[in-house]
């Protein structure tokens, strides 16, 4: 029995983002673990505690992504694998899914794959759904709670949030789950955990290790560059008035004048 | 240039979602002389068919079956991928809703097709789509383009494109198709639904009234709800209010909540942290109500009122009630 959790590093949300004249983006040098992944990794470790499964933490990316793996190891994942190849430099979500699915097949005995809801930097969850499809497994997205998990009976029941409200869904293993922040309180690394993680060997699997060709991960969509947002006017027009009523009436009048309502 | 476009029309409990009509509007523009086909999956969806024609469809592919009553990944993806395989449209569109993003990404994976998602601008250049979407917490725009071959799958951010004007009386061919999966091949069963029933969905809302730590407690959302009711608005919240347990998570706006772009966003007792801005920056008009004139939200807002939200909100509710009668 084996659970895999995917993670990556993302720019710090507080970072100032700038775009240069040639459309390249810069967000400072500080990277943090994708905030959503803290919940996914914690959930994997909680499942390990309850079910005696092995947990592998995995990422797709260059050396700088190893920090996220170390974080996973430090809070209790058993092993880490980094998937990277120069052919993946410009990968799209489909290439990501192709690579991750191949790695999960290579591990062999995986029953459950966990993701955080999305990559916070690119605001993308497409790679998650595509990984499930490339594996041919059931996708359970936006999970707020795993209500039941039975590795022997190969069943899972989750509470997920959708645009319609919340739903309780039963499905079969193997499955891919993406988790929301309601699912747990993230664990933080202990001193001993950090020391253990620092010593761990992290294998890097390239396309050859995964039995994939460069053509199979050629991107079908690409980022051409970045643009600044249109600027918003400096600061708010403050609505003044002697009383709350006066301020409210003035604001409502302004909104109606400008046909905002 | 004419292209054939598929649009998935999402319905929830039989109600079509407005993001789907926005997608039909975009499809109409992209198609030129080409054909726009609306795909309607569900149980008892006949009432939606004439609406699809009125919003711009030339044809409808309709699958009506109990196994399709509610969106589920397996039967919906199998059916969409099968229909795309059969008819080979150039472009497949849907709203970038929870279901729309999952459905299009999954079908694109099955067909090894290019995918752009959650886009706010979309153009066609020499047959290939180019799009813009906000990334990095909405702080910059990423310009992306299809470079590979095959049907181009795209999800469109709700409210980023105009709702087309309905033209009643338009009609066209209706193709009825059966589900692609038999019910016993579907592993995933919905056991129960707690519908957020009646209340306006945040992502579809044209007006949102949000409360933050400044509302002081669960009962502090009462004046927020009263104003929302008068305006027909949805209720949002900052993470501080959600984490305090004053309001459920589905109301959270921001980086780790929902991304919204209403016409009007009223933020009361919200300081305007960068992570909150990530969810509401694209609102057309932002109104801030805060007792601290230095709150960062005033840098983003078009209009501000400095004052106690417990005095300002009831006054606003009353003023709107008078004027909107
Ligand atoms: C990884 C990460 C993700 C995050 N994601 C989100 C997210 O998705 N959404 C989100 O909102 N936050 C998010 N946050 C949290 C964010 O950083 C802020 O902590 C949060 O937005 C603050 O909420 P607030 O504005 O309600 O509270 P505060 O910052 O405490 O502001 C309260 C405001 O209310 C005003 N006020 C108080 N009383 C009154 C009154 N009676 N009348 C009028 N005004 C009053 C105060 O002047 C103050 O400006 C995230 C943080 C991190 C680190
Ligand atoms: N794991 C990943 N999955 C998808 N896209 C990524 C990933 N890592 C980086 N990217 C994006 O790929 C693009 C190219 O990045 P770069 O290699 O920095 O030029 C940028 O938009 C990155 O943010």
Unreliable runs of chain B: none
Taken from the alpha-carbon principal axes, the silhouette of chain A is globular
Distance between the termini of chain B: 49 Å
Bound molecules: flavin-adenine dinucleotide, adenosine monophosphate
* Strand fraction of chain B: 25-35%
> How are strands sequenced across the largest beta sheet of chain B?
7-11-6-1-4-5-12
CATH class of the largest domain in chain B: Alpha Beta
SSE-based structural type of chain A? alpha/beta
The CATH architecture term of the largest domain in chain B is 3-Layer(aba) Sandwich
Strand order of the largest sheet of chain A: 11-10-9-12-8-1-6-7-13
Describe this structure in words.
- Chain A has 7 helices and 15 strands.
- Chain A is an alpha/beta fold and 261 residues long.
- Chain A has a 9-stranded mixed beta sheet, sandwiched between helices. In chain A, strands 2-5 form a two-stranded antiparallel sheet. Chain A has a two-stranded antiparallel sheet with strand order 3-4.
- Chain A has a single domain (2-217), classed as HUPs (Rossmann fold, 3-Layer(aba) Sandwich), CATH 3.40.50.620.
- Chain A starts with a strand and ends with a helix.
- With 325 residues, chain B is α/β, with parallel strands linked by helices.
- In chain B, strand 8 (121-125) and strand 9 (128-135) form a beta hairpin.
- Classes of the chains: A alpha/beta (261), B alpha/beta (325).
- Strand 14 of chain A pairs antiparallel with strand 10 of chain B, so a sheet runs across the interface.
- Bound molecules: flavin-adenine dinucleotide and adenosine monophosphate (AMP).
- The site of adenosine monophosphate (AMP) has 9 residues of chain A, from loops.
């Amino acid at each position: 029995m084996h659970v895999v959790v995917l993670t990556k590093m993302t720019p710090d949300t507080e970072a100032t983002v700038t775009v240069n004249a040639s459309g390249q983006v810069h967000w400072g040098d500080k990277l943090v673990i994708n905030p959503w992944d803290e919940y996914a990794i914690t959930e994997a470790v909680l499942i390990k505690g309850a079910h005696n499964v092995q947990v592998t933490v995995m990422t797709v990316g260059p050396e700088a992504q190893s920090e996220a793996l170390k974080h996973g190891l430090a809070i209790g994942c058993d092993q880490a694998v980094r998937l990277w190849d120069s052919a993946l430099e410009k990968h799209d979500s489909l290439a990501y899914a192709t690579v991750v699915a191949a790695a999960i097949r290579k591990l062999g005995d995986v029953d459950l794959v966990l993701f955080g809801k999305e990559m916070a930097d690119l605001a993308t969850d497409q790679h998650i759904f595509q990984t499930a499809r490339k594996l041919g497994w059931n996708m359970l997205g936006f999970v707020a709670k795993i209500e039941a998990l039975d590795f022997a009976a190969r069943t899972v029941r989750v509470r997920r949030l959708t645009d319609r409200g919340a739903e309780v869904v039963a499905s079969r293993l193997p499955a891919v789950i993406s988790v929301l922040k309601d699912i747990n309180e993230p664990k933080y690394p202990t001193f001993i955990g950090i020391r253990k993680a620092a010593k761990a060997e992290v294998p890097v699997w390239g396309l050859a290790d995964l039995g994939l060709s460069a053509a199979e991960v050629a991107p079908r969509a690409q980022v051409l560059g970045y643009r600044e947002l249109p600027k918003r006017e400096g600061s708010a027009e403050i609505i003044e008035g002697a009383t709350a009523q006066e301020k409210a009436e003035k604001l409502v009048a302004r909104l109606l004048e400008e046909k905002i309502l | 240039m004419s292209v054939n476009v598929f649009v998935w029309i999402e319905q929830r409990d039989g109600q079509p979602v407005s993001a789907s009509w926005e997608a039909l509007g975009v499809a109409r523009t992209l198609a030129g002389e080409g054909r726009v086909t609306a795909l309607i999956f569900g149980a008892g969806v006949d009432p939606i068919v004439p609406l699809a024609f009125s919003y711009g469809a030339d044809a409808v592919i309709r699958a009506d079956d109990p196994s399709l009553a509610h969106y589920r990944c397996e039967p919906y993806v199998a059916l969409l991928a099968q229909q795309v395989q059969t008819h080979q449209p150039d472009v497949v569109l849907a709203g970038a809703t929870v279901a729309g993003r999952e459905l299009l990404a999954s079908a694109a994976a099955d067909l090894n097709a290019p995918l752009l998602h959650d886009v706010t601008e979309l153009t066609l250049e020499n047959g290939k789509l180019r799009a813009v979407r906000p990334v990095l917490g909405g702080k910059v725009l990423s310009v992306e383009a299809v470079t590979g071959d095959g049907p181009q799958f795209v999800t469109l951010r709700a409210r980023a494109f105009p709702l087309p004007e309905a033209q009643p009386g338009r009609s066209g061919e209706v193709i009825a198709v059966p589900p692609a999966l038999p019910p016993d091949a579907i592993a995933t069963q919905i056991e129960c639904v707690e519908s957020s029933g009646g209340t306006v969905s945040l992502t579809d809302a044209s007006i949102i009234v949000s409360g933050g730590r400044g509302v002081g407690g669960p009962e502090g959302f009462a004046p927020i709800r009263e104003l929302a009711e008068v305006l027909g608005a949805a209720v949002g919240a900052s993470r501080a209010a959600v984490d305090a347990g004053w309001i459920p998570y589905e109301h959270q706006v921001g980086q780790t909540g929902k991304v919204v772009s209403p016409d009007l966003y009223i933020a009361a007792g919200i300081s305007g942290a960068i992570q909150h801005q990530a969810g509401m920056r694209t609102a057309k008009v932002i109104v801030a109500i805060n007792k601290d004139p230095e709150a960062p939200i005033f840098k983003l807002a078009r209009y501000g009122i400095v004052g106690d939200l417990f005095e300002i909100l009831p006054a606003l509710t009353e003023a709107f009630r008078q004027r909107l009668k």
